[in-house]
Every structure is written in C-alpha cells, then in structure tokens.
C-alpha cells in the first residue's frame, strides 16, 4: 500500500500523471519519455531546474525502478477507484459544517454548503449551484484553452524569428570580422594594435546584441514552458466529468486565481529584438580612416573631383579641380558684426560636376545633376580660415558663422559646443541609414552626426561659402 501513499512522488511534473516509460536526466529529475521529448524539441533544458541537456538526452534508457513503482501505483489507484462511490459521499460534505456541498462560491472560487453561504466568511459573496458553476467554468476554460493555443503558436513563431535574428547577427559579425582582417592586412605591422581595438569593439557590440536577444529568447521560452505546463494541467482537469471533482480539482490547482487571470495572453508582452551590427564608417572606409589616423605610414589615395559650374560668383580653375570665390554680383550679406559678405553656394558630385542654379531665399545656389542614391560616401572640403561656410547635403548641413557651429536639419537649427577650428571638414554619408557625420578631417575628431528620416533619396552634396572679397585661395573637394 506504500505505493498509494507515495503515488504523488511518481507523478510526472509535465503531464501531472503517474510516469509512463520514465527516464531520468543527468540532473536527477525524472519525466515520462514522451513528455521530456516534446520539451527537448524546443529547448535543451530540464523543465524543473533549467540544467542544460545534451541533444542525445531523449535516448536515455528507461528507469526500470521508477517504471515498476509507477505500475504498482497505477494498480493501487485502480483498486482505490473501485471503492470511490462510498468515499464520494464523504467528499460531498463540508469539512466545517458537515453539510452537503451544493454551492460554488464564485468570489472565493471554492465549493461551499448552505451554512457557508450564510456565514460571515462569505458575506456579500456571489454563489452559483454546483452544476451551473461547473458548466460556466468549463466554458471559460475551453475558451481560455483556445486563446492559450493561439498564444503558444504566436510565441513559437516569435521564438523562431528571434533565433533567425541571432543567426543573422552572428553571420553579420563573422562577415565584418573577415572584412576587418582583410583590410588590416595591408598595414599589418604598424596597425596591429589598432586592429585589435576595432575587433574588440565589434565583439563588444556582438555580445551586447546577443545578450539582449538571448534575454528576450529566454523570456519567450519561459512563457512557452509555463503555457505548456498550464495546458497540461487544464487538459487533465477538463477530462474530469464529475462536476464536484472537476471544481474541486480546479480549485486545488489554482487556489484564488480565476481562468481570466491564468489565460492572459503572454505573447502580447513579448517582442522580437532586432539588432543590426554596424561599425559606422569603419565598416565601409576602414583603410581610409586608419590612414587619416596614421598619415606617416599610409599614402593618400584620394581623387580630386572635377567641377563644372555656371554661377557668376564661382570660378572653376582651368583643370576643373578647384573653385575660387570671385564675387561679381551686387548681392551683399552682413556678418554678426555688420561687415558685408558675399555668398556663393554649390553642390558637387563625382566624378564630373554639372550644375543648375535656382534662387532660394535670395541666395545664389548651384546644384549638381549627379546625386547619391545608395551606398556610403565620404568627402572632404577645405575650409581654411573662412569665416562662414555650410557643408553637408541639401537641407541637412553643418554651419560655421565665425563664432559657433550649428546644425541645420529640415530648417531646425541646433547649436553645437564644438570649439575647435578645423582646416578641413570630412563628411560621411550613409544613404541606407540616412545618417550624415562630420569630422575634423585632419585629426578625424568627430564633430556631430545627423539622422533624419526626411532625407529624400537621391541626395546631393552641398557647400555654401560667404566671403568679403575675391578669394585667392581655391576650395577643393576630395572624394574617397
């Protein structure tokens, strides 16, 4: 008879019934073979202690001792069931008042007798006849099961998508790592230290991305495990046809929790984390940026752009590679001190420029016919000691007015705290992410990065210059 008293210890924690073909994991926990096989198909962890389980965990031998005890427990339960009618009458009595349990307290989610209903403990509570309460609860549970199944399906889909994102991130990280190694090969000895630093940066980004996504995946798998465990429990309860046993089993398993609370959707609380690895300019212009940091080692590989313009205030050199400010118009503007400025504007695009010239707010501007539609681009403009300039792309640029720097994005001006006076300005444009970065081109010090979804592809490079007199110093632009 010991098997009767200890039969609860022979229950599988997944299906909540006595073991069928039991197996024991290395962590010591035992389950039905089919139950643990279903779990290990989605994750390789023990459902109880979350210890990792090898892929071959489903091929464990049957635990003969547990199987023998389980069979004896089943036989004892069968014998017990034959005497259940006599004991059922005892179970119908209220343990406190020894009256028949004819009511179900909806408020406390428990069976009650007539005396319980009129007692102080249940004052103001809502009661239903046992049959009516059972029918109502069954409908709720069946509806909840439908929602639970849908929630499980959505969670499985989300977990699958998250795994795909993790795989993509690993592949992108591997791709970038290979690219970094290949580009560093040309400057192997001198830049070994710098190469290791950039690799570490990429690794940190990968680990950060993997940590966030792994946490999300763990949350999804936990929710999935809990839902499946609940599914097993409810399925077992729904198999009970006797109203009183059905309600009693439900209340014993769930205490004060209502079906509405138990079957709340979990997938709505989950969201797949997307994280695309990027190294910014080091991803597409790695060798160039390393060259800018180590000019004494790497030889320049820039191309001088050829210009062609039709502004009367801009003169193109004979070789077509430089622009001179030669004001010929009568338009004059004033700086913050009241001194007159003349103004010229132009856009460039490699390898040969051709321009058309509209009027914008009484400012003479020159726009390139050639434009940037995709990819990543970098160019540098020599500003020297000029007191005013605007550089960037149309409607998104960096401005210097002789005293301070500011950015202009869709006519919104924001002042910057950058206090240096660069001789050359480097501009990095990523068309896909619509990000525009500015650098001190001599030291590669980052000045500012602008991001705007309002950037309309294709994009044109832009510069605007003001000056007091004809400028003998040419402005050149180099594109890399």
TrEMBL record:
Family: Belongs to the TRIM/RBCC family.
Record carries keyword Metal-binding: yes
The protein's name in its UniProt record: Nuclear factor 7, ovary-like
Residue span(s) of domain B box-type: 89-130
GO molecular function, one term: zinc ion binding
Taxon lineage: Eukaryota, Metazoa, Chordata, Craniata, Vertebrata
Organism this protein belongs to: Seriola lalandi dorsalis
Segments forming a coiled coil: 188-233
Domain RING-type: 12-49
UniProt cross-references to SMART domains, sorted A to Z: BBOX, RING
The keyword Coiled coil is assigned to this record: yes
PANTHER family named among the record's database cross-references: E3 UBIQUITIN-PROTEIN LIGASE TRIM
Keywords: Coiled coil, Metal-binding, Zinc, Zinc-finger
